[in-house]
């Protein structure tokens, strides 16, 4: 696996590539850095994103996960910049249930590029994106994109 790290407003992020596809974005800085065209392009796009640019990430992804998780992530990837959907709406899109959509969001290995931060509770509640991510990060990303919503933080 090849990795490249980037500083961001939400902390250091490490982008990982395997077989010329992105497999994860993790919190923290990797001591194992290697510049590849895909990692450099991803880093550049993330920097534009954090500058507030409205862009669509069109990068080759191969997130490790179950068939169900990948189905959820594919649905979430269609949510445009600055918009959000509820867990219920996403579950309707894939003929599933909101709690399992939430669990798949929590296992998303490529946050931001697979924008699980754009999925919220029907009462505009937000919860953490992944096991290591803080709720404040999700709120920051929503505010960065400017969907003009007021979100209640839940633990």
For the secondary structure, the number of strands is 7
Q: What CATH architecture of the largest domain do you see?
A: Orthogonal Bundle
- Count of helical regions: 5
**CATH topology assignment of the largest domain:** Arc Repressor Mutant, subunit A
What features would you describe in this structure?
With 155 residues, the protein is of the alpha/beta class. The chain has two domains: 2-50, no CATH class; 67-153, Orthogonal Bundle (Arc Repressor Mutant, subunit A), CATH 1.10.10.10. The protein is 33% helix and 17% strand. It has five helices and seven strands. Strands 1-2-3 form a three-stranded antiparallel beta sheet, with helices on one face. It has a two-stranded parallel ribbon with strand order 4-5. A two-stranded parallel ribbon has the order 6-7. α3 crosses α4 (98-106). The longest helix has 14 residues, at 37-50. The radius of gyration is 15 Å and the shape is globular. The protein starts with a strand and ends with a strand. The model has no long low-confidence stretch (mean pLDDT 87).
């Amino acid at each position: 696996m090849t990795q490249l790290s980037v500083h961001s407003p939400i902390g250091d992020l490490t982008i990982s590539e395997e077989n010329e596809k992105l497999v994860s974005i993790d919190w923290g800085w990797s001591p194992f850095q290697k510049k590849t065209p895909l990692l450099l392009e991803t880093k550049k796009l993330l920097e534009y994103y954090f500058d507030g640019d409205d862009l669509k990430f069109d990068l080759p992804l191969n997130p490790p996960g179950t068939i169900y998780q990948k189905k959820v992530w594919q649905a979430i990837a269609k949510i445009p910049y600055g918009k959000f959907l509820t867990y219920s709406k996403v579950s309707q899109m894939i003929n599933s249930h909101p709690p399992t959509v939430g669990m798949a969001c929590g296992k998303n290995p490529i946050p931001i590029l697979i924008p699980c931060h754009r999925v919220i509770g029907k009462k505009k509640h937000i919860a953490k994106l992944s096991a290591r991510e803080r709720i404040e990060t999700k709120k920051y990303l929503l505010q960065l994109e400017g969907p003009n919503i007021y979100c209640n933080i839940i633990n």
